[in-house]
Write a structure and sequence with these properties.
Blueprint lengths: L2 H14 L1 H33 L17 H8 L5 E5 L3 H5 L9 H16 L3 E5 L24 E7 L2 E6 H4 E3 L4 H6 L4 E4 L1 H14 L3 E7 L9 H9 L2 E7 L9 E7 L7 H12 L7 E5 L8 H9 L2 E3 L2 E5 L5 E2 L1 E6 L1 E2 L16 E3 L4 E3 L5 E7 L3 E5 L17 E10 L5 E7 L7 H4 L5 H12 L24 H32 L1
Parallel strand pairs: 1-2, 7-8, 7-9, 9-10, 10-21
Antiparallel strand pairs: 1-3, 3-4, 5-6, 11-17, 12-19, 13-14, 14-16, 15-18, 18-20, 20-21
Length: about 500
């Protein structure tokens, strides 16, 4: 027998041997398993691209999840809205040349996709203006020419549209040396969710409800900036009016007087009273928040008295552990009027106040409490002295942290004055907590202006580099390489090693 015949015989014997047959079956099974894993990865990736809500968010803070208010709002949307991002998706996800914080663009991209996935009325498109330079020509109400235009998105509903800038959609660290000296953007958060929802509200609501903030009486504009932002986010048209030189706008539905440090002049108080009366047509509202300090305001007090209310000359407190938080002057409140809570998303969550004045009811026929505390509450006068004891000033009927007074006319027409005793409850660190401060004020404004349930409060989304599941575009690519390529190859190599070892036995 020749050597060639001997080799062919050994080869045939090898393939007919029991070890080879078992090993071949193992290899086939392993190869099939690897192929299935690869196929599942590819199919899953395609499904997630097509249906973003199939993506599983493993971050503790829900980095890639829309907030509940957003989901509730867009699901009831009944008008078609187009979201146009004015760069290619690849450029957007890469961070648009950001020095730092490019991960927020990956996050924003996912949030936008989920908005479109959650509503059949929202369409998301990425428009690369470098290859579509004429796209912006039909949006002639938008500034495209100045250096500060910086437009990132267009939100469109029918003939109404608005532009969102990069600064509105992302938080930029303007104090960073890279920004100040080199002009590189350092991003610290994405606000794209609240910006887009605000824009959708604006283009779908039609005419905005106007709100005027009164200036000229020593108001702290920075202190009420969170309230202004909240109103703007909910599609209110907010402007400032100095009563010394002008009147509130005729089309305004709400005027806000926030913590004046001096009394209104007689002329200014008369302007407010006339504006509320509206030549007998009524239909207007004043929100008054007194300063938490001793300031004589006889002209403001006279206006409040007409609506059946008075603001106490001191600060409210609460000694009941059911209400107070940390100290006696910071406490939660009970709701007293269902008219202003029935549309709240969660009426079981209370409003928190600090250093509040007590809003006394002088006429129960025209005024009623909104927020109050009944147990262990009182009011310490401003001139009580350092030796004053809280228990000496307990009030049997409790205190009111907010109240509403109403003057009614014919055909159910009415004007309201709403008094909130605490200016601190409107600061950002109180409005952006888990308490109901922001939701309650928006619900109240919507109710007194007959806007219905249009309230939505969206906070900015933060990013934690250490959280599993929150990754940059580069990391996403690497994860894909690992799961689609590396792991199957490693499994195959392990199988081959086992096969060779078994063959050698």
């Amino acid at each position: 027998m020749s050597n060639k015949e001997k080799k062919q015989g050994r080869v045939k014997a090898f393939f007919k041997s029991r070890k080879t047959k078992k090993g071949s079956v193992a290899v086939i099974i392993l190869a099939a398993a690897v192929a299935i894993v690869v196929l599942l990865n590819v199919v899953t990736g395609l499904l997630v691209q097509r249906y973003p809500n199939l993506q599983f968010d493993m971050t503790s803070s829900g980095t890639y999840q829309l907030q509940k208010d957003t989901v509730d709002y867009i699901k009831q949307l009944d008008k078609d809205v187009n979201l146009y991002v004015l760069v290619s998706e690849k450029t957007f996800k890469s961070g648009m040349n950001a020095y730092s914080g490019a991960q927020y663009f990956v996050q924003a991209n996912e949030l936008l996709k989920k908005m479109a996935a959650d509503s059949k009325h929202i369409t998301l498109k990425y428009i690369d203006l470098s290859s579509n330079p004429t796209f912006t020509t039909k949006y002639d109400k938008i500034d495209w020419n100045t250096e500060n235009a910086n437009n990132l998105m267009i939100v469109e509903c029918g003939d109404d549209y608005t532009a969102l800038t990069l600064d509105e959609c992302f938080t930029i660290d303007t104090k960073s040396e890279y920004y100040q000296y080199y002009g590189y953007s350092v991003y610290t958060a994405t606000t794209i969710e609240q910006a887009v929802i605000t824009a959708i509200l604006e283009v779908t609501t039609g005419e905005k409800t106007s709100v005027d903030f009164i200036t000229g009486s020593g108001e702290n504009k920075e202190a009420y900036s969170a309230l202004v932002s909240l109103l703007k986010q909910n599609a209110y048209d907010v402007k400032e009016v100095n009563l010394l030189t002008a009147k509130p706008r005729e089309d305004s539905k709400i005027v806000v007087l926030y913590a004046p440090t001096v009394d209104l002049s007689e002329d200014s108080a008369e302007k407010l009273g006339d504006w509320l009366n509206n030549d007998g047509e009524l239909g207007r509202n004043l929100i008054y928040i007194p300063i938490n300090d001793k300031v004589k305001t006889p002209n403001i007090d006279a206006l409040l008295k007409k609506y059946g209310m008075k603001v106490s000359d001191g600060l409210a407190y609460c000694t009941s552990s059911k209400y107070y938080i940390g100290d006696y002057y910071t406490f939660i409140t009970d709701y007293n009027n269902e008219t202003y809570t029935k549309e709240l998303k969660n009426p079981d969550v209370p409003v928190v106040v600090r250093d509040s004045r007590d809003v006394e009811i002088l006429n129960k026929d025209t005024a009623s409490p909104l927020l109050s505390v009944e147990d262990g509450a009182g009011m310490v006068p401003f001139d009580s002295g350092e030796d004053a004891k809280a228990e000496d000033y307990l009030k049997k009927n409790g205190i009111n942290a907010a109240a509403i007074g109403t003057i009614s006319g014919e055909d159910e027409k009415k004007s309201n004055i709403v008094v909130f005793g605490s200016p601190i409850m409107f600061l950002s660190n109180y409005m952006e907590t888990s308490y109901n401060n922001a939701n309650y004020i928006i619900n109240l404004c919507n109710t007194i202006t007959n806007r219905g349930d249009l309230g939505i409060t969206i906070s900015s989304a933060k990013y934690d580099n250490g959280e599993l599941g929150t990754v940059t575009a580069e990391k996403i690519f690497m994860v894909g390489i690992i799961f689609i390529g590396a792991i199957p190859v490693i499994v195959l190599l392990i199988g081959l090693v086992i096969f060779i070892r078994r063959r050698a036995l």
